[in-house]
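=== Structure Prediction Worksheet ===
Name of assembly: unnamed complex
Input type: mixed (protein and possibly other molecules)
Chain count: two
Listed entries:
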Amino acid sequence: MKENILQFMSARWKALLGLGFLILLPLFIDSSYHQIILNKIIIHSIVVLGLNFITGLVGQLNTGTAGMYALGAYTSALLTTRLGVSPWIGLIASVFMGILIGYLLGYPSLRVSGVYLVLTTLSFAEVVRMLLTNMIPITGGALGITSIPEFTIFGVKLGRSSVGFYFMLAAILVLFILISNRLINSKWGRAFKAVRDNPESAETAGIQISTIKIGAFTLASVFGCVAGALYGTLMGFISPVEFTSLMSVRFIMMLMVGGIGTIGGSIAGATLVTLLPELLRFMGESYWLFFSLIVLLSAIFAPNGLYSLYTFFRNQANKYISKLGGKASGSI
Amino acid sequence: MDPGQKYVRRHNNLETLIQLAISGLAMGLIYCLVAIEFTLILNTSGLMNFGHDKYIMFGAFLFGGTFVIRLGWDFLPSAVASVLLMGVVGIFIAVIVFSPLQKLPRVYAMTGTMALSMILQEATRLTYGARSFTVLGFLSGTINFGFVSIQRVYLFIIIVTTILLIFQNLLMMKTKLGRSFRAVAQDKETSSLMGINVNTMLIASATMSLLICGIIGVLIIPVTGITLGMSNMIGSKGYIAGVVGGMGSLNGAIIGGLVVGLTEALFLAFGGNPVYKDVVSFVLVVLFLLLKPDGILSEKKAAI
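=== Predicted Assembly ===
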């Protein structure tokens, strides 16, 4: 039953609309500062899309995202600054790092779940941060890595706040959206949700829980590592100081606020949380307090994040319109 | 360094060894308390109180910032006042936040507790500023026992925490409140059928938990200073202590805390690089999670 205009459009039209929006967006950006924020939103969206697999679909809370992000960033940064390889190679290397981490975290996740998994992933992220901070000969310690080179396509350098870089990031985002979409709407996605809802029944139905959990973790870490590598090139400078457990919590908040389990929700949440410091600048020092308050309230009252608010208002509007229309029920 | 030299070096530094033992014991007891305070809430509500370290930080700020510095009170009345105030805060938090959160699916509940701790941290930052400070003359200095001089704060921690642990044990074993708590920890539904008001237990345990957090906060000020991140590591080590000793078990919390403190002290005593001291505990917890997730005591408690 098509209840709103968005559902009147087939998925193909929605995708075209989104694509058009992405392409036209740079027209509205007037400063390089805003451009960098936009690029950050894209990178964060990629992380949250990955996190969505393990936390949204399989329902295993992963508080170690900062560790994946950091390792991806450092892999690419170290390769490009110390060995002088092209950032593209760094990107591919971060994919492999993601696969490695996926297995590393996936196996313990088979034995522990729930709260224990939270502690395991938390410990992972903290150990990563401590090692990166203290292995000074290799990583440069707390001073971090500087002068991370930018990407070049066919000899053209893509500056950090250039439109070219934005389109490259947008293209990568679109790629990841397509991958996520194919996965969620396939037997993998259904298996993910099955393991979340009822592991025993899923096993009885023939789903290998170990494959599912390791697969979900690998997806999360590959997305996270690639995003980390892109982050390194965006900022030009990384340091272990920023990859704290607070950052992991922020990624979780992005997922929660946007709407757990959906692609649009992941992107919406990433956008909102990344934009928040800018939007709430008028609040001065207290914006994070305000935001945490909102997260807390929404956890209690609107657990599905923005998506549940959206459905709530949509249903209210539909009821109102039905009353107006009488027996011929229209809807928006 | 050949083994002979190492032995000679350690033997000459008996004082260092004793100091390490004392500080290891003191911190281990602190970890015990941290593990106890989150186990209290865990057992009565099934809620894992993420960000419990921020409550410890808040207790320290209350003591140092509000009572000692701003109001100019003496140490003891300040300590008592800030701990009591933490208890009152505990009542409010239990009623307003923990009660509704415990009914939600785990993912949302955990995020909710995280958000609450963020709120607390931000409120603290806005009220007291982001500068770190400390309380001068509070448990500072050392006491000499012959050839060994030991920091006063560690001795104080050992004495206070031991008294607190004994008190806690008596409370759990001998009083009606303690028996109710143990009943709820074992089986919440049956306890409520038996007439125990589970919600009251939640409020009571949250109050106790925050009282303990306040005490911990005051005690560790000479060790960490009063700063926003003072209790981050201690909070994580508290979780580690809980896992190592047996999640959900109060006795396990004590054993776990001591094991973690001992491991750190041993690591340092054997010449480990102090920079990696924290990594050791995390490696410990990962080992336990993989090999023996039930912890040392393996008492089956509240389902998490």
